[in-house]
Every structure is written in structure tokens, then in C-alpha cells.
Design goal:
The complex is a heterodimer of chains A (about 300) and B (about 290). By secondary structure, chain A is mainly α. Chain A folds into 2 domains: about 60 residues, no CATH class; about 230 residues, MetI-like fold (Orthogonal Bundle). Chain A is built from 14 helices and no strands. The longest helix of chain A has about 35 residues. The two termini of chain A are about 40 Å apart. Chain B has about 290 residues and is mostly helical. The radius of gyration of chain B is 25 Å and the shape is globular. Chain B is built from 13 helices and no strands. The relative contact order of chain B is 0.12. Chain B folds into 2 domains: about 55 residues; about 220 residues, MetI-like (MetI-like fold). The two termini of chain B are about 25 Å apart. In chain B, helix 3 crosses helix 13 and helix 10 packs antiparallel against helix 13. Classes of the chains: A mainly alpha (about 300), B mainly alpha (about 290). Chains A and B meet through helix 1, helix 2, helix 4, helix 5 and helix 6 of A and helix 1, helix 2, helix 4, helix 5 and helix 6 of B.
């Protein structure tokens, strides 16, 4: 009996087992209706319970603890000069890194999907690397190249350029960990797109840049935008790599995540929670944007 | 798509027509320049640092590499990391699949919000994840549970940050899954669990493996969420990434690099294996 024949039989038997609930759950011919509903509820509560214990309750607790004594202490903590500096430093890093990784990410995607050279597998590996590598290892590897005793250490010192323990190092660290997202989101879109339109543009007289700007880019823009949102979230939240390369000097090279740790280690839980709440709110904004965009790009996954 | 004889001819004539003219040549120069810039960017950012890492790990020769990775504290840290990551991945496989199932097959008010919140660990900075978990499960938390300075804390932090991987990997497969096979099986008398085990699960396995590999790689290198809640007690709750961090702070860069290379190799091997397994498994998907 082929699968389709069996399916036909299954479908004709299904009406006898109609239950409330989503269509696919109705054809539970083997067990009773009540057992089906109990099972569905059981699964639902197991899943939701797990999510509540792991995600919901802790996040709720943080908001509760932060605003427990009212808005004033929170506002106080958030407007501390070091906190404000940390916030703007984080924003500055994002403002530098995201455009860089967007431009180069699109470039990488174009090379992977439209290029004809042998190193494409290596490019693919480079895109997967930030997912396999620990942020601490990222920081270490950057120090090994650009630190005082690193490969370029002498040259950099001689020219008075400081990379590690300074903004440029933090830019590198943040860029490394947030590198793959735009490329990974753009590659499948480019793949689906195909080269027909681009070839047509070429025959009509468009240069490579014109083809890119007027044919390719508009077609991939939602993939790019989604990738930009992911890159921003990752860049904003980076902790381990920046922790190593920045030296965590407060008021100078402390990003907002580093500031959270600093406050926590100094037993200033109000300050830590307040900064954490700011970051959490930014994360929620990211989630919202991601979900709105997911509908545009017909995706409901992240990775 | 774009490989038929007509479009190939189109492409060929386009190339021929444009090479002598000015436009395409300018375009080509731009492409070469762009690729060069990209190469520099990737070298400065990724290739050089990774090379330096490998060089540093190898700098003292095999004996010093071996000494670095077999130091008792390093071994303890790596063992803890591998074991806890494996347990976390196992839990994620079960609960991740369960959550994906409920999100795809079930309907309840607020499902959209729950679905969106799955990505929260991905959007939230890791240090905030640690603080958040501490608020509820640390000292002074309302439940009375205090897991600070325990291995359970490490596990909890890793569970938090790796939550989305299996769920997001399985969801699209579940959505695409044709329900008629399940209907057929249950019309033939199979109970729900049998239907799941023998019809649905084999189709989900590649996605589950893929999500599990990503979870494992992430868990192996996790730093920010663990660093506060575990207390980083050597030989007890110090994970690999924290050990590496401490070595860097103490200027033992070669030792740090050696352990880093081991950790990175583990992650890459797992990723490669699972990708291979998942691609093999996909061939059997109906």
C-alpha cells in the first residue's frame, strides 16, 4: 500500500475522530479524544513550564527587582556618568561595526554566491567560525596580533597607535563576533534570486555597480535588513571578547555590558540591574524588530 | 533557472559585448578592488588573529603545548565544560523538540509572544543573562533556591543561552512536515507516541542534530553568562573559557592559546560531524 493510498484511507477515517484543536492533531485515531486532549495539554504545560522557569521568571524577576523601590533610584543609577559613558561607547561601537559588517557581509555573500574562485569553501568556514569560537578566544587572538607583545606590537607602538586597551581593539573584537550575520542572511536570498535579472541588466548596458545597485540590492534588501538587526544585537551585547581587549577601564573603555559586570562585582546591584534592564529593553526591541521583519522575509528562524 | 542554452548564450554575448567597451572594464576594476578590500578586512579581522593563535599555541613546541593542556586546572576546566555542555545539549534536544512541537502544532493565546521570546537568549547580552538568572536562582532569590557557586549554575546558564538553537532548527522542518503520513499511521492503529517515534522523529533528526551541534559549540565557549553565577571556582565551577580568561589576565598567553586551540578544535569537530550526519540523514527524509 503506498503512502498516498494509506493517506487517503487515513483521511476518510479521520472525521470519526474529530476533536477541537489544530487540524493536524485531529486524526489521532489510535487513542481516545480525552486522552488526546490531555496529552496536548500536558505537552503544552511541560513546554511552557520549562520556558517560564528558564526565561520568563528570571527576566520578570529582574524587572521587579529593578523597579522594586520605584523609578528614582533606577534613574539615578542610569544617569551616573560612567553608565552614560558606557552606553554611548556601546552605541559608538555599534555605529562603527554594523555598517562595516553590512558592507563586507554583502561582499562576502556576493563572492560566495556569484564568485567563481576556489576559496569559496574557506569563506564559508570563515562565516561559521564566530559560532564555534569562544569570545574569550577571539579577544586572545586579537591581543596576540595587535597587543604590545603581539605580531604588530612593535610597529604599532613605534607609530603611536594603540589598538588593544583602546577603541580600535574593541571595534575589531566586536566586528569579529558579529561578522557572519549579514552574509549568512544574504547568501540564501542571493541563491534564490538567481542571475537572470542581473544578466538581463548586463545585456541592457548596465555596469557591475549599476546592476548591483538597481537589480541585486533591492532584491536582497530584506535579507540584509534582517542581518543588520542580528548584527546590531550581537554587537551591542558582546561581552567576553571586548572584556579582554578593552582592559575594562571604567569611564574609558567600558561598554554597557562590561559596566553591568563592574557594578555587580562592586556590590552595586541597583546599578547593575538598571544597566541590565536597559540592555534587556534593547534586546526586546531587537526581538520585536526581528519578528516584524521575519514576516517580510518569510522566515521564522534566527540561525 | 539560469543554465539553459538561451541564457548561457545571453551571458556569453553580454561578456563579449562589454569587454572592449568602457563600462564593463570599469565594473571589473571595481570588483577587483572590492574583493581586495574584503580580503584585507578578513585578514586583519580573522585570518591573522587565528594564525597568531595557532602560532602561539605551537610556540613552545609540542612539549610546552602538552604541558599547558594537561595542567590539572586546565584539565578540570575542560572536563567540566565538555560534560556540562553534553548534558545541556541532551536536555536541549528533548525540551527544544518539545517546545518546537508545541509552538507548531498547538494553539493557545499568546503563542506569538512565546514564539518571539524564544530568541531572547540570542538578543540578550550574556552578562545580562547571568545577572537575570542570579536574580531568581541566586542569593536572596524569592524561591529560596541558591545555586551560586555550583555546577548546576553552570548548567543553568548554558541552558539559557543555548535555548533557541534546537527550537529554531526544528520548527521549520515541523512546519513543512506533511501530516498525511501521521494520519495514515494513526488510521492504521498506531498510538500517538508510536506515530511520533517512527514517523515524525526520523524526519526531525537532521534538524535536531544540527541544532544540537550549534548548541554544543555555543556552550563550549560560553563565558559571560557563567562568569557571575558560577563563581569560577577552580576545579569546581571554572569552565574552559574562564580558565583561558584567567590565563590571559596572568599573562600566560601561550598556555591560554593552547587550551583555546583545544576548545576551538572540539567545537569545530562537533560542528563538522553533526553537519555531515545531518546531511546524510536528510537523504532519508521523505
Amino acid at each position: 500500500m503506498s503512502a498516498s493510498e494509506a493517506a487517503a484511507i487515513g483521511r476518510s477515517a479521520a472525521p470519526a475522530a474529530q476533536l477541537s484543536g489544530p487540524p493536524r492533531a485531529r486524526a489521532r485515531g489510535g487513542d481516545g479524544a480525552a486522552a488526546g486532549r490531555a496529552r496536548r495539554l500536558g505537552l503544552r504545560f511541560a513546554a511552557l513550564g520549562y520556558l517560564l522557569a528558564l526565561l520568563g521568571a528570571p527576566v520578570g524577576m529582574i524587572f521587579y527587582r529593578t523597579f522594586e523601590h520605584g523609578l528614582a533610584p533606577v534613574w539615578d543609577a542610569v544617569t551616573q556618568p560612567n553608565a552614560v559613558h558606557a552606553f554611548w561607547l556601546s552605541v559608538e561601537l555599534v555605529a562603527i561595526v554594523v555598517p562595516l559588517n553590512t558592507v563586507f557581509g554583502i561582499g562576502i555573500a556576493l563572492l560566495i554566491e556569484r564568485g567563481r574562485f576556489r576559496g569559496r569553501a574557506l569563506l564559508g568556514l570563515l562565516l561559521d567560525l564566530p559560532f564555534a569560537i569562544s569570545p574569550v578566544v577571539v579577544g586572545l587572538s586579537l591581543v596576540l596580533v595587535y597587543g604590545r607583545t603581539g605580531w604588530f606590537g612593535d610597529w604599532l607602538t613605534a607609530h603611536g597607535i594603540q589598538v588593544i586597551f583602546s577603541i580600535p581593539g574593541m571595534v575589531l573584537a566586536t566586528a569579529f563576533v558579529s561578522l557572519p550575520f549579514v552574509a549568512r542572511e544574504t547568501v540564501p536570498v542571493l541563491h534564490e534570486l538567481g542571475t537572470d535579472a542581473e544578466q538581463a541588466a548586463a545585456t541592457l548596458g548596465a555596469s557591475a555597480w549599476q546592476t548591483f545597485r538597481r537589480v541585486t540590492l533591492p532584491a536582497i534588501r530584506w535579507g540584509v535588513v534582517y542581518g543588520v538587526v542580528l548584527t546590531t544585537a550581537r554587537a551591542l551585547g558582546e561581552f567576553g571578547a571586548v572584556s579582554i581587549v578593552s582592559g575594562r577601564l571604567e569611564g574609558q573603555t567600558q561598554t554597557l555590558p562590561l559596566y553591568v559586570q563592574d557594578r555587580f562585582e562592586n556590590f552595586d546591584t541597583t546599578g547593575a540591574y538598571a544597566a541590565a534592564v536597559v540592555l534587556a529593553l534593547l534586546a526586546f526591541a531587537t526581538l520585536l524588530t526581528m519578528n516584524l521583519l521575519a514576516k517580510r522575509t518569510h522566515r521564522d528562524t534566527v540561525v | 533557472m539560469s543554465t539553459g542554452p538561451a541564457s548561457q548564450a545571453l551571458g556569453r554575448s553580454a561578456g563579449r559585448r562589454w569587454l572592449p567597451a568602457g563600462g564593463r572594464l570599469r565594473g571589473r576594476a571595481g570588483i577587483v578592488l572590492g574583493s581586495g578590500l574584503l580580503g584585507i578586512y578578513l585578514s586583519v579581522l580573522v585570518l591573522l588573529p587565528i594564525s597568531a593563535l595557532l602560532a602561539s599555541a605551537a610556540s613552545g613546541g609540542t612539549s610546552s603545548f602538552w604541558r599547558a593542556i594537561s595542567s590539572p586546572e586546565a584539565v578540570a576546566a575542560m572536563k567540566l565544560t565538555l560534560v556540562v555542555s553534553a548534558i545541556v545539549v541532551a536536555i536541549n534536544v528533548v525540551f527544544g523538540t518539545l517546545i518546537a512541537w508545541v509552538l507548531v502544532r498547538d494553539e493557545f493565546p499568546g503563542k506569538g509572544i512565546v514564539n518571539a521570546l524564544i530568541d531572547l537568549p540570542f538578543a540578550l547580552p550574556t552578562i545580562v543573562a547571568g545577572v537575570v538568572l542570579l536574580a531568581l536562582y541566586g542569593k536572596g532569590g524569592p524561591t529560596g533556591i541558591d545555586i551560586t557557586f555550583t555546577r548546576a549554575a553552570v548548567g543553568l546558564a548554558l541552558l539559557f543561552v543555548t535555548l533557541p538553537f534546537v527550537v529554531r532548527s526544528v520548527q521549520p522542518v515541523l512546519i513543512e512536515l506533511d501530516g498525511s503520513m501521521e494520519e495514515a499511521a494513526s488510521s492504521l492503529g498506531a498510538g500517538s507516541w508510536t506515530v511520533f517515534r517512527r514517523i515524525v522523529l526520523p524526519n526531525l533528526t537532521p534538524a535536531i542534530l544540527s541544532g544540537a551541534a550549534l548548541s554544543f559549540a555555543r556552550a563550549l565557549g560560553e563565558f559571560g553568562s557563567v562568569v557571575l553565577i558560577s563563581g569560577n571556582l577552580p576545579f569546581k565551577t571554572e569552565v574552559g573559557a574562564v580558565y583561558i580568561f584567567n590565563q590571559v589576565e596572568n599573562d600566560n598567553v601561550a598556555a591560554a592559546a593552547s587550551v583555546s586551540v583545544v576548545l576551538l578544535a572540539c567545537a569545530l569537530v562537533v560542528l563538522a560531524t553533526m553537519t555531515w550526519l545531518s546531511r546524510r540523514g536528510s537523504r532519508h527524509v521523505l
